[in-house]
Amino acid sequence: MKIGRHIKEGFIGVIRHSAMSVSAATAVTITLLLVSLFLLLTLNIQQITKNVEESVQIHVKILDSSTTEVIKATQTEITKLAGVKKVTYSDKNAELDRFIAAFGADGKIFEMYRGENNPLRNAYLVDVQKSAALDVLAAKIQTLKGIESVNYGGENTIKLISFMNGIRDVGLILVIILSSLAIFLIANTIKITIQSRFDEISILKTLGATNSFIRAPMVLEGLAIGFLGSLIPVAVTIYGYTSMYKSLGGFLVSELFILRPVYPFVLQISYLLIILGVAVGLVGSFISVTRYLHVKR
Fold it and tell me: How far apart are CA 109 and CA 100, in angstroms?
């Protein structure tokens, strides 16, 4: 019965002090909207960076003079190198297929080079681990027997991966800073709400009410404010990201930069926003009301 009364008093408090409740809920809404924006951005950049790193391959051309034994032996040696995840042998026909596919519908013109007219080389497609140094690995492969040339995209590929990692790290730092700022702002707003009820707390203390009796409904009031303040950010997150994903076709700029699928991604962000709103509401109201419970009867 006491729990039921505290819950009832908490919701009555939200309605009774509607102006301050709206102010606190607005602070929750604004800060959680910003948190949501940076989370969506950072986690998508993290996904894009991972896709870029996993798609990086070292393309190794094999000398035409290389025998089958040399090709197999060299493939084994490359596989043993630190940082190499997988090595796939690609013959001339497979290389021509890849070349034609890169030009789309216009690539059909190169079908004339099938068979003996094929000018391309047999090759190895080397998948690397994301922590591997591409330039160092390419230099080691170049020294092996039967290798004509090694291509990994050069410094531009390394710079792209480094740039994406930098953006991801900055985004994570901004999320942490913004989340901390959100906690401070929301707790401060709830503190002001509690301050406006200083006389009410003093009267209850004078009448003999215990600290827990006074604190419980106000803490539940903070929980309700935090929850209500998270509803708009959740709705904006789900609708906004779904609309953006559909309009962009699921990727950013090119198919290399694939966005995170809508579900369960938006639901995970939404749950996090609700938990953050409720947690900050609880903690902020608990700290604020406890401070004013030190009033002497």
Answer: 8
Domain ranges of the chain: 2-52+164-292, 57-151
Strands of the sheet with 84-90, listed across from one edge: 84-90, 123-128, 57-62, 147-151
Q: pTM score > 0.85 for this model?
A: no
- Judged on CB neighbours under 10 Å (0-12, 13-18, 19+), 237 is buried
List, for residues 35-67, the tens digit of each pLDDT value. Answer: 888 888 888 888 887 777 777 788 999 999 899
Q: What angle do CA 196, 200, 204 make, to 5 degrees?
A: 150
**The tokens 């503190």 sit on which residue?**
191
Structure tokens at 291: 């401070």
pLDDT at 273 over 80: yes
Distance separating alpha carbons of residues 59 and 185, to the nearest angstrom: 53
Q: How many CA atoms does the CB half-sphere of 27 hold within 13 Å?
A: 25
Domain 57-151 carries which CATH code? 3.30.70.3040
Mapped to the 3 state alphabet, what secondary structure does 73-95 carry? HHHHHHHHCCCEEEEEEECHHHH
* Alpha-helical runs (H) found in the chain: 2-16, 18-55, 68-80, 92-102, 134-142, 154-195, 198-206, 211-248, 262-292
Q: What is the tens place of the pLDDT at every residue in 177-233?
A: 876 776 676 667 666 766 666 677 677 777 777 777 777 777 787 788 888 889 999
Tell me the pLDDT tens digit for each residue of 176-189.
787 677 667 666 76
